[in-house]
User: Fold this.
Amino acid sequence: MSKLLCVYCSSSSDVAAPYHQAAEAVGRGMVERGWDLVYGGGKAGLMGSVARGVKSAGGRVVGILPDFMIERELAFREADELVIVATMAERKRRMIERAEGFVALPGGIGTLEEMTEVLTLRYLAQLGHPAVFFNQNGYYDDLLRFFERMSRERFRTSGMSGLYSVASTVDEIWTHLEQPARYEADALWRTGK
Assistant:
């Protein structure tokens, strides 16, 4: 069985076509490299584009969706496995538990919240799988500058840049997943210094 890659991304259908095209390419590329998809289970926006890309390449899609989204007809019904949960928190937990890697495509506040939870778990040595930001068209430039400011002003340690990788192209994503830089958690969070 293939490994599951957790992809976080926008559920907005209003984003520009190049973002959808890249999301579909990510889905197809996953399958070519032996990954299947675990994600939030939606059919709209980049979420749907990734899932359709995976399915078009013959891959397996695992969607994890809160029940209130089923009522709104937002589920990707073509998923091979559609897990219905009660809350958004349970959805995140289940995706993290099943994944062996994480990629954040361009997205909104939900994408950011999901990926920062992964980074926090990596920092606390509770999660060892690689995490990659797909910085398509410089989408995450401002966030990455904010992370640098956190280090510069000592709100986080300088070594925390090792928590994640940044890919500018779809092909770079696979390099970061297949040859991840290992993050060694420093002792700062334990000592409080």
